[in-house]
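W.,

You were right to be curious about this one. When I first looked at the sequence I had no strong expectations either way, so I just let the prediction run and decided to look at it fresh. Below is the sequence, 467 residues in total, followed by the output.
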Amino acid sequence: MREENEFIFGEEETLDIVQRYEDMLKHNQSFFFDVIEFENIIDYYLTIDKTGHALEAANIAHRIHPYSTEIRMRKAEMLTIEGKFDEALGILQVLSKIEPDNSDIHFLLGQIFLGKDDFKRAEDYFRQSIRTAAEDSDINLLTRIASLFQDRDEYRIAIKYFQKALSKEEQNLHILFELGYCFEQIDDLEKSIQYYNAYLDIYPFATNVWYNLGIVFSRLGRYDEALEAYDYSVAIMPANSSALHNYASTLIALERYTEAIESLYELTELESSNPKIFCSIGECYEKLNNFPKALEAYQMSLSINPTFAEAYYGIGLVMLEDKQFEKALDLIRQAIKLDENNYDFWLGLGKTLYELHKVDEALDAYREATLLNPEEPDGYLGVIEILLYLQKFDEVEMLYNEISNQFTDIPLLKVIRAAAQYLAGNPFESLVSLREAKQMDPESVLDFFELVPNFLDSSFTDKIKSI
């Protein structure tokens, strides 16, 4: 079977044949094309992604050449592409008896059973296809089989066939890239790095490979190496905005906010109408406590898109920092109105309402956050702190028991529980909780003193110091 864009005739002659074929169809004329011409017509429609036209041409060809193995195979191929597996299977089972060593027939049978999710039978036929293939087609066949499994997200099986193909041509760039990608998808990141580097050893000017390598390094937390990879990607293609985005994000992860701002402003030259970039700049300025600059960036974001929710939220946080709580509340509510399922917005709403002493509303906001993202701890921490403030100590204990197994590495959770236990008149249990928190973070007990500053007696303070 021919690869895409590979015609039997030249491109000009192919277009001429297709034009004659379409004219005859349009005028309902009888016509004759030989087998090779019909194959070229079918290939043309496949190339321009008109599988319905290709199947129609295969059906017409089959009526004119009912005994042609090539045409019957092409019809089976079109039926397979259209997902009409049983009809295609009927044709191929007949052909396989006529030509038992035809590699293309076995390949199509494998493709059909892959479409039916019968991977075992699919691989049986693919093995027969490989066994009966001409030696010079081995690499292409193995790569095509691997790609079929890759398209089904069956990356481990795809890897097996890509590696067989690579053993026949160790410097094949396409195969090296696909192996890097497949190992990335199954989280075998060291192997992914190995194949991407093998590619770059042969051809170091592949911006997409450097970009993918940067993503893998980022996932491993190897941020300095990720920065270097993104840097190479941008050096090769300065307009690679995706690499610049990731470069800036990596700098932010490293808390190198000044450098991140420089990178983000560079990105605005490529994406001047992207409000998200200016919001990211605003967030970096916030981290640097440069709130006037943060406000300027958020306002620039809104000038680009007046309905950009993150910009309203960002300005709200600046107002919150400036203790302009009512303004902050209006802005954060505007952000939620535009994007009501944003977890961070509800956290910010909870914090702002609490500052305004609207405790019940703050509690509702934090609870909404826990519903939107139950995998993150901050919403629960907001809820449990308010329950402590309301002196609902039994509810503090109930919530702690509900979430403590999920969030085992958060000492503040144990400290809040310790505060509730102490205030409920259970100092011994409080000390046990504080000891557990201190083992996780020796500084965590300082939070305890902030939570119960007016209720501590000196003897209990001495006991805390001794744990």
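Here's what jumped out at me. The chain is about 75% helix and 0% strand. And, maybe more interesting for your project: Residues 1-7 have pLDDT under 50 and may be disordered.

Coffee later to discuss?

I.
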